[in-house]
Amino acid sequence: MVMKQPYRFRAILFDLDGTLTDPFVGISRSVNYALTQIGHPPLGDEELRGWIGPSLHASFEQVLGDPRLADQAVAHYRQRYWEIGMFENSVFPGIPELLSDLRAAGIRLFVATSKIRPPTERILAHFGLRTYFEAIAAVDPDDRDGNKAMVIASLLPRLGIDRGWAVMVGDTIYDITGARAHRMPCIAVTYGYGAYRDLYLAAPLALADSVTALRHLVLE
To answer: What local confidence, expressed as pLDDT, does residue 5 receive?
Structure first.
């Protein structure tokens, strides 16, 4: 299901993982590296898909059942991810062109991610995307929750416009609920890692099943 009516926004907040880039290889390998380092068996691909979007610490704690073990796992994860995993990643086809055209149309662009800032900055720079964005909001390294509403809140003073003229674009229900906490609409992309049913039931402004569909909603 994709709504066909284009919307006119003055600012767009983009999620990173599963929206701008496909991080599955790097994240899944880093998660399993961390788990095996503390003696836990690796997870299968289907289970690992659910790790893209939620808080990393919360995901480890859910599997391990111990916040102290989760702390250790996060440290192992970051060791591998920062060295290798963040580059085991790819930009979704059509994203660079969309960002360029949005900027040319005078639309202000931001990143709102539940990742921490250093890898976010490095990923965007590595793939040549950083220059498109006016500002980046990420979480603190010690933040265990990765609350998307708080991430979005940190960008609101930069917008300088009514929130109805801004939109969040992301691939999970956390993007939808985070935007809704600030009375901001959200377009959910279904080409990422959120379950389609969950996204549909969360009632975003629109669903986009491809970058082409997203382009139509925000630009054409």
So the answer is: 55
